[in-house]
Amino acid sequence: MTRVGVVGAGLMGTIHARLLASEVPGARLVAVADPDRAAAERLEAPATYEDGFELIAADDVDAVVVASPVFTHEPFVLACIAAGKPVLCEKPLTATPEAAWRIVEAERAGGSHLVSVGFMRRFDPGYVELKARLDAGAIGRPLLVHCAHRNPFVHAFFDSAMIITDSAVHEADILRWLLGEEISSVDVRCPRASARAREGLQDPQLILLQMASGVLADVEAFVSAGYGYDIRCEIVGEDGTLALPVDVSTGFEQRFAAAYGHELRAWIAGEAVAGAADGFAAAAVCAAGVESLRSGGEVPVRIG
Ligand SMILES: NC(=O)c1ccc[n+]([C@@H]2O[C@H](COP(=O)([O-])OP(=O)(O)OC[C@H]3O[C@@H](n4cnc5c(N)ncnc54)[C@H](O)[C@@H]3O)[C@@H](O)[C@H]2O)c1
Fold first, then answer.
1. Full set of structural domains in the chain with CATH
2. What is the pLDDT at residue 304?
């Protein structure tokens, strides 16, 4: 039985803690940490902490889920590596590629695979089927991918760069995973902003991702879409097309409910989940995207 502690008792920490408490064979929720102790206590784990580092150090915690804000991810993940404990860190692994690279290096220096990243779309049944059919040759050689990432609304702290680093980071990962290759450059183009977007927020954005093989992907990232949470993906190949079923829901919690459970079960079972190098690659793509948003034009992705 793996005794799991969850750091961060907000939206994602609650989803993970509830799943760990009841729907993940081989796992037991033993502790939750949050500076907001009342939030931690609501999750009804046997132990609660205000300090995430204390949870990571606790003798009765074997593995850790980090679901706190992104600025806390690097120190918590490094503490897990130092303690030799497996960690599933929510996306994005870090806010910058430099910080993600420090994690890659720390994990390598420790000599064991400990870091997983919560790119849960890899476990969404729709994406899994898309990849299986693509890999089986159903549409021949892929040429183009059209993606849309639409949120009904976002919180006031969301800025234009976060549309890339916090939302479209999911597409950066899923495109690498679906196509099995790296993204080589990013070009962000912006239409006029929606009247629904908060003052100053450049929303929507059209993010063009050039894959290393020559496949071109476009991502419409639109976080003030109003009508619902709507994730689309169509791959155009030489012999046909493949697409996710259209599934408009109220939010990511509903749309990816199955994926969060599959991801945790895979992590506990020691199966492949996105790792630190994937977190670094996605952060590098996002950094290029933010640079393109600010300066205009195509920006190469700097990996390594
Ligand atoms: N995979 C997904 O679909 C998905 C969806 C939403 C958010 N996320 C990611 O999950 C993470 C958390 O997002 P959220 O929406 O749950 O945020 P949230 O604001 O709902 O919750 C964050 C929680 O972390 C706590 N916290 C703040 N500082 C802390 C610290 N130093 N130690 C421990 N806890 C601390 C806060 O008190 C809060 O309870 C982010 O990285 C976010 O990008 C992933």
1. 2-120 (3.40.50.720), 122-255+276-300 (3.30.360.10)
2. 64
